[in-house]
């Protein structure tokens, strides 16, 4: 629908959404083609990989909820638990998502994006699924920057009026991108990158340090590229069972 938005009117008045026709009429006219396109994507290997990735992040957020409410909230204890969960249960290390979580809980006040978890919303399980999609979308945008053609590269951008998406972006202040076109690799440097790397080293348990051989690191990278929907669904179901069981216990005091 944004393709039909009167941007000049919107710039003059950001509360005005003029599509030239009633919004409900435009939505109805676009829906059939949109559903046809979505249906064609359901069997795409690339889409299925991203779906598995999102389910993995959903499991990570569920474990985050369990760690947050299991004892007095402590950011370093939680990061340690999430690193272990990622390496030994999830099967890969979602660095971007861990960085976002750390940015959201490392200060006196928790970032609003994570409030459904830290505030223990009645709809938390549903909200976590939505949060996982948002975080996966952010990761996907960064991956898009790897695409290149004839020496050109892409700086991905995304237009949204979703307040939660804006909250997520505030946790991800990218300062620079380093693109290696020959290796098809990319590195993002965030404002807090150095601090996050240091705290990750501090939060590594002995079990994690013991698994830092080059062979095991290579195996984890291979596992990250071959995750599947079914195994991630099972992990999400297991984490939801753990949460439901723990949530019946008396609540620990929060910040």
Instruction: Give the biggest beta sheet.
Output: 2 strands, antiparallel
SSE run: HHHHHHHEEHEEHHHH
Number of domains: 2
Q: Provide the spatial order of strands within the biggest beta sheet.
A: 1-2
Give descriptors for this structure:
255 residues; mainly alpha; two-stranded antiparallel sheet; two-stranded antiparallel ribbon; 62% helix; 7% strand
Short account of what is shown:
This protein is mainly alpha-helical. Helices cover 62% and strands 7% of the residues. It folds into two domains: 41 residues, no CATH class; 204 residues, no CATH class.
How does this structure look, described?
The protein has 255 residues and is mostly helical. The protein has two domains: 1-41, no CATH class; 44-247, no CATH class. It is 62% helix and 7% strand. It has twelve helices and four strands. Strands 1-2 form a two-stranded antiparallel sheet. A two-stranded antiparallel ribbon has the order 3-4. A hairpin with a 4-residue loop joins strand 3 and strand 4. The termini are far apart.
List the helices and strands and how they pair.
Elements: H1 7-12, H2 23-41, H3 45-70, H4 75-90, H5 95-105, H6 115-118, H7 124-144, E1 148-149, E2 152-153, H8 163-170, E3 174-180, E4 185-190, H9 193-202, H10 206-210, H11 214-225, H12 229-247
Antiparallel strand pairs: 1-2, 3-4
Helix pairs in contact: 3-4, 3-7, 3-12, 4-5
